[in-house]
Amino acid sequence: MNMDSTTALAADAQLIKAIHGGDERALSQLYRLHWPMVSHFVLQNSGSEDDARDVYQEGVMVFYEKVREGSLELSCQIKTYLYAVCRRLWLKRLTTKSRLHGVRLLDEEEYGPYLNTGAEDDVQEAEERDRRFATMSEALTHLGEPCRSLLEGFYLLDKSMLELTAEHGYTNADTAKTQKYKCLTRLKKLFFASYKEA
Amino acid sequence: MQTEADYYALFEAYQRGELAAGARASLETRLSTEPRLQQLYTEYQELMGTLAAYGERRRTRRTIAGLHEAMLAAEAAPAAEASSPLTHSVNPILRISRTERVLREFWSGHRATVGVAASVAVLAVFSTLLGMEAYRTAHAPQNGVRELRREVAQIVRSQKALIRKVNTQVLGTTEAVAPVRDSKYSGTGFALTADGYLVTSAHVIKGADSLLVESRDHRRYRAERVYADTKHDLAILRIKDPSFKPFAKLPYTFKAGQADLGERVYTLGYPREDVVYGEGALSARSGYDGDTAFYQVSIPLNPGNSGGPLLDGQGNLIGVVSSRQDDVLGAAFAAKSSFLVRLVDSLKNKQAAQPYHLPRTNQLAGTGRSQQVKRLQDFVFVVKVYE
Fold it and tell me: Are B322 and B234 within 8 A, CB to CB?
């Protein structure tokens, strides 16, 4: 058991390193490895296949973003951590979905001490971030065209100014640029207005 | 005066390091001295940071969704990646129709509940059915007729036995105590012949292990079953105890013919510890459901009366008390004596070794009712049945 966990931890460390380095194959491997566990967990606890997918992707996202930031402090195996995160996420969904207050989850003993994995805090942090992103997405929607596609094109899709100029039919890149900055200030107003009030 | 948009352009250029050295230095100085500009710059940074992270998040989400698709594809074609150690589970749900998938999800989510509910339902149904069946067989009177043998109250009996036991122990009497074993049922029986044949109802001795008859003076004799005719509810017993002294003569005779409607009749029996007299009239010449083997009599009868003699005013035995109808007031039934006589005749032919001497002379005729009863009660017994 001890040997097992040591080798597992070593493998985990390797995987984390690879993912931190942006290795998509490592992420894919991780993803496949723990999917059965989470899907089983969700299905066991009155969820559907789709619920399982959503929860798992959310969970992997939390993990991935922490890894990419380099701020992940793992005190257990990845498996346990993912289980804890997904468990937390699913519990949240269940409680919002059902008016039933005392939702009880069937846990697999195998995934062991899912408490004190730091998952709780990470999920909370991720939620805060989600809220911020939701606000951003909303602000972008409210911005309307052509500002939205202009900003998305430049900042999110990494298109060049020239491309965008052509796309939106501006006379030259400078006009487009000026327009972009105007859009940016509007975005700022929208974003902070709804983010602060929320 | 520069607009906010102009400042944004400036900030972006600054962050990308596209500003010339002089412009940069001037901006940095202004940032450190002008709080308004500083705030603007902080907001700009936060906005851009969020925007960048948002973009990153969108990319990541797409990547992960792609991973899921890839995984499902890999599982759907396991042969292609059979060598890969990563294909853990082959998910059969992928290859089934949507309806079935929904059903499967429902099943996997609720199968415990469904199982429990089903077993509770099955249990409830069967226990109700069996319970009702048991209740009916236990309580329903057979054919609406209740047979009148008495279930002896166990508690009273055992209490008496206890008191007797205590008395003997405390008082130190050495008097031999009869082995106290309680009978399960009791009924009534009466003498058929002077030498120890008795008549009772067949249902009284049904399931009997051993039989004990007790006379009015509390003498007990062992008895054995000679013959039982369940169809006419008649049974013949014989006292086999050597201590039994044959009677001198029976005072009554058995009527071979039919008795008449409206005849005043009476019976003696043991519905309780003491002998009880009951009288009434012969109200019909057929029994329950038109059974011609029985009379209907209007005598109030109770459990324990079964097997008692039914006599007419002249002291002729005309029947053997058998049962009463529960849903009709005052309807009791007694087996006709003609069937008893016929039964005895048929037994005579079979068992010549032990002849039946039915009484021939009636000593009760012409005497008063109380005189008759006084004579009669010596020939009426309690029949105790042990199982």
Answer: no
Binned at pLDDT 50, 70 and 90, residue B176 comes out as very low
Note whether A49 contacts B93, CB cutoff 8 Å. yes
ipTM of the complex: 0.76
Written as one string, the DSSP assignment of B78-147 is TTTTTT-TT-----GGGGS-HHHHHHHHHHHHHHHHHHHHHHHHHHHHHHHHHHHHHHHHHHSPBTTEEE
Q: Which residue of A has its CA nearest to B59?
A: A156
A59 CB within 8 Å of a chain B CB: no
pLDDT by residue (tens digit) across B336-358?
Answer: 999 888 888 888 777 655 677 77
Domain boundaries, chain B: 34-77+94-139, 144-387
| pTM (2 d.p.) | 0.45
Instruction: Give the closest residue to A8 by CA, choosing from A40, A27, A31, A30.
Output: A30
Q: Regarding the domain delimited by B144-387, which CATH topology (the fold level of the hierarchy) does it fall under?
A: Thrombin, subunit H (2.40.10)
Q: Which of B51, B58, B91, B100 is the best mutation test for A, with the most CBs of A within 10 A?
A: B51
Which chain B residues touch A35 with a CB distance below 8 Å? Answer: 68, 71
Of A56, A157, A191, the CB nearest to B47: A191
Kindly state the helix (H) or strand (E) to which residue A37 belongs, with its residue range: helix A24-44
Nearest CA in chain B to A46: B109
Which residue in B267, B259, B263, B265 sits closest to B201, CA to CA? B267
pLDDT at B100 over 90: no
| Average pLDDT over every residue of B297-303 | 87
C-beta atoms of A156 and B93 within 8 A: no
Looking at CA atoms only, how far is residue B5 from chain A in angstroms? 5
